[in-house]
Amino acid sequence: MKQLKLNYLAEALKEAGKAFDKGEVPVGAVIVDKSERIIARAYNQSQMLNDATAHAEMIAITQASNHIGDWRLGDCTMFVTKEPCTMCAGAIFLSRIKKVVYGCPEKGCGGLMKLLETGKFPEIETSLEIEFANSKECSALLEEFFKKVRTAKK
Predict the structure, then answer these.
(1) pLDDT digits 0-9 by tens, 71-110
(2) Which residues are catalytic?
(3) Are 4 and 36 spatial neighbours (Cβ–Cβ below 8 Å)?
(4) Which of 11, 60, 87, 119 is the most buried (most CB within 10 A)?
């Protein structure tokens, strides 16, 4: 199963590469159903779509919901290159995703883990599993992107 997880995270990293190539923050996500098929794949598109909510996770959730014909994704696992932000974490909870595997932590204003620490989701009964994959490739892609952005601003 560990190799499968790495394969799915590698697929999410390919999506993040697409975002990088388009000048978007390089985050990619895939959602896998209970039969271990990828049913959604997405990358950040906020700049391209001029939409603050066009994060990889949000787009993937919409695709997966359309694929299975239900907004409840209780048998699904999301693989994402970076820890989901607060907005995406809320969507993950609401869509009832079973598990999230993320490649590197959110270093900004806090994300999924920070949200879980607050314990403020009594209205949502969830048994969300979270796994930190500690992917050097995911971290390196984000670091390269932000270094490129900082250099361009000089």
Answers:
(1) 999 999 999 999 998 889 889 989 999 999 999 988 766 6
(2) 57
(3) yes
(4) 60
